Amino acid sequence: MELVILVSRKLWPSMLLLLFLTVGFINGSLAFDYFKEKPSYIKSCKIYEPEFTKCSTQSIQRFLQEVFSGKVTEVTDAVGKLDPLHLDEINFKQDNNDAATLRAHLTNLMISGLSNIQVTESRVSKKDFSWLTKLFCPKFKIEGHYKMDGRVLLLPLRGEGQMLIDIDAMNITMRTKTRLIEKGGFTFYNVTDVKVDLDAMKMNSQFDNLFGGNNEEINRSTNESFNKNWRDFFEALRPLITDTVDKIMFRLLAKLFLMYPASFFVEDIPTPQKLYGKV
């Protein structure tokens, strides 16, 4: 015996919506939007009170430690694993530079070391609420596939293969531009631009198949030369490394700070209407 249920065409939209919501709740697949309540790992600071920078530095340090640890499931579900962090590709072009003229296509990148970042200073502008953040990363590693064509330290460089860039004691000065926005009665940071300056105490690198991979001995001696003269090589690759870190931090911060209301960090932050006037 078969049971046939007839549903009016007028009811189909409602039935489909109900089915979608039911399946979503059962599977836990409805997307997380943002935190409505401040998590315990965030320390709030008041920008118009003394020692705000000290408070903010401690707050952002604790926040990043918690987020990079992978313990915040809402973040890992929305952004993915943060250390190591995966990037699909980066395209880079640098012309008319004394140290290097380079075109690079980097793919399937794994970035590791972010979970050990130390926040040494976190400043927030009272004028436009942009940030100046100083970071220290003990170990920073980029692994992936490269395709390069150009010149580095007077050497013609053309190759394609696996690469490794391993940087010790990297200092990062990060300037972040934001635009305050309102969502659900909360004020959020909308990150619009990230620019970094870098320096390092040491860099080791390995590029397979340099010069087309035709001569393994030349490939080995060139990599040895790059590592022996690492400071010159770092300066030659600084724009490429800086561009990579720019993109990493922008993609990360742009997502993160739309998940956490800005008032969780800066308790007395104005609304967009108060800061910009009527929009």
TrEMBL record:
Superkingdom per UniProt: Eukaryota
GO cellular component: extracellular space
Pfam families, alphabetized: JHBP
SMART domains in the cross-refs: JHBP
GO terms under biological process: circadian rhythm
Keywords recorded for this protein, A-Z: Biological rhythms, Signal
Coiled coil: none
PANTHER family assigned: IP09473P-RELATED, PROTEIN TAKEOUT-LIKE PROTEIN
Family per similarity comment: Belongs to the TO family.
The name this protein goes by in its record: Protein takeout
Organism: Musca domestica
